[in-house]
Amino acid sequence: MTADEVLLVLQGRYDYYSARTVLKEISAAAAVSADGPFDGAAVGKMADALLSGGQRVDAVVDALREAAAGAKKAPAKKAAEKKPAAEKKPAAKKPAAKKPAAAKK
Asked: What's the whole-number mean pLDDT along residues 5-10?
């Protein structure tokens, strides 16, 4: 699991900048590098660190533990093996309905 993937999970609870701060704090508490990649054991340790120090973090801890279980089962993919994701085209905006002009007297 990469650091970006952990950050996405943390952003379920924290804003963009706070998630990065929390990642640094829980990785230090778990004695792992904040840069990743993380194996299942490291993610589990970070989930435990988050649970011991955070408030209203149950959903995030559950998501991290699920990711840790997945990281234990699946081997990590190398960056060279990954294919770039196809970019989505933004949906065309519908024109706003015109309001009738106010009647003049």
From this structure: 91
First-to-final CA distance of the chain? 69
Q: What share of the chain is helix, strand, coil (3-state, %, to 5)?
A: 50, 0, 50
Residues present in the chain in total:
105
Per-residue pLDDT of 28-47, as tens digits, reads 999 999 888 888 889 889 98
pLDDT digits (tens, 9 = 90+) for 64-87: 888 878 766 544 444 444 445 555
d(CA 64, CA 39) in angstroms, rounded, equals 12
As a dihedral over the C-alpha atoms of residue 7, residue 54, residue 59, residue 79, rounded to 10 degrees, the angle is 20
The encoded tokens of residue 53 equal 């120090």
DSSP E strands, 12-67: none
Give the angle 38-34-1 at the CA atoms, nearest 5°: 25
